[in-house]
């Protein structure tokens, strides 16, 4: 039983079309699955990833049109980072994002790596992290676009940031239950690593008791998911989480992977998810995300579901 790294991060958007435009056109990610929230099929669930939809590269969004603003604070997944191949790539992205008139901070060095923090149009807190000096979990498959060269393209998810009022309860779950290792810390940021390590397998926990508790809205993150090998291993994780006394979902079949959800003591929602079967289970690899995909248990409701969703239109 070993956490292999980051599987996906699921966030919230108010506007699916604007979200689609930004993450495909500006960020150059591939929409690998256009589906719905399986617990509420009235809303989109969009999956952006690398060129092949590999685990460890999925940044997903639930559309909730009635959302208000996010009031940032603790007990939250406070930043999602994305991996790029090199320090030079960060300079490319800094210029590109500034030209798009986004809120972009200067490039900094953290834990020996260069990083660029910025916000998307809904104030989603994001960062790009350079893999130039990185070792560990392999990157995803970069996708070249007309205006994003292959050597600068995003290649997966980087460290996930938690912000908590007290480190100890979260650290106990990460280390004693999930098997992460605390590597080091800088100021009030504590770095934890799993599996092969590296940018694709880290959680950075910010401890800050001065902040209020976050009130989520558009631009906030719903949960972070971490990779386990297969269903058999996930069933063992279910037992471990239950024995730890954590309220949890039990094993949930999401069709493209199996999942387990639970909240750690600082109220952050964590998911463990299997690497497979994968997004090409019901669509050919070369046409992922082009049509609305539904798991079998929702297929008989397709007509009603499609009638309640606004079609997404590509600018290309």
UniProtKB/TrEMBL annotation:
PROSITE patterns in UniProt: VOC
UniProt domain VOC: residue ranges: 5-131, 156-275
CDD domains on file: PcpA_C_like, PcpA_N_like
Signal peptide bounds: none
Protein name as it appears in the record: Glyoxalase family protein
Source organism per UniProt: Salimicrobium halophilum
């Amino acid at each position: 039983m070993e956490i292999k790294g980051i599987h996906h991060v699921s966030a919230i958007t108010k506007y699916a079309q604007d979200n689609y435009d930004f993450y495909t056109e500006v960020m150059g990610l591939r929409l690998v699955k256009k589906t719905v929230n399986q617990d509420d099929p009235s809303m989109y669930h969009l999956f952006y990833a690398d060129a092949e939809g590999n685990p460890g590269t999925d940044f997903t969004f639930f559309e909730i049109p009635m959302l208000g603003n996010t009031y940032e604070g603790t007990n939250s997944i406070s930043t999602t980072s994305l991996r790029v191949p090199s320090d030079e790539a960060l300079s490319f992205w800094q210029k590109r994002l500034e030209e798009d008139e986004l809120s972009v901070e200067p490039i900094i060095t953290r834990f020996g790596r260069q990083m660029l923090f910025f916000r998307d149009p809904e104030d989603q807190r994001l960062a790009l992290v350079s893999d130039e000096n990185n070792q560990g979990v392999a990157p995803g498959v970069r996708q070249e676009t007309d205006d994003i060269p292959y050597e600068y393209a995003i290649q997966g998810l980087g460290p996930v940031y938690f912000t908590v009022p007290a480190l100890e309860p979260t650290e106990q779950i990460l280390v004693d239950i999930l098997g992460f290792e605390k590597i080091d810390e800088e100021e009030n940021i504590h770095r934890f690593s799993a599996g092969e390590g590296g940018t694709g397998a880290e959680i950075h926990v910010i401890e800050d008791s001065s902040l209020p508790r976050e009130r989520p809205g558009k631009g906030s993150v719903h949960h972070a998911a971490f990779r386990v090998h297969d269903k058999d291993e996930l069933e063992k994780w279910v037992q471990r989480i239950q024995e730890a006394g954590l309220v949890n979902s039990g094993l949930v079949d999401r069709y493209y992977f199996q999942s387990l959800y639970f909240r750690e003591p600082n109220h952050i929602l964590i998911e463990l998810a299997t690497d497979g079967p994968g997004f090409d289970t019901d669509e050919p690899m070369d046409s992922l995300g082009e049509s609305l995909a539904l798991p079998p248990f929702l297929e008989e409701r397709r007509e009603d579901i499609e009638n309640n969703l606004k079609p997404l239109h590509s600018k290309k």
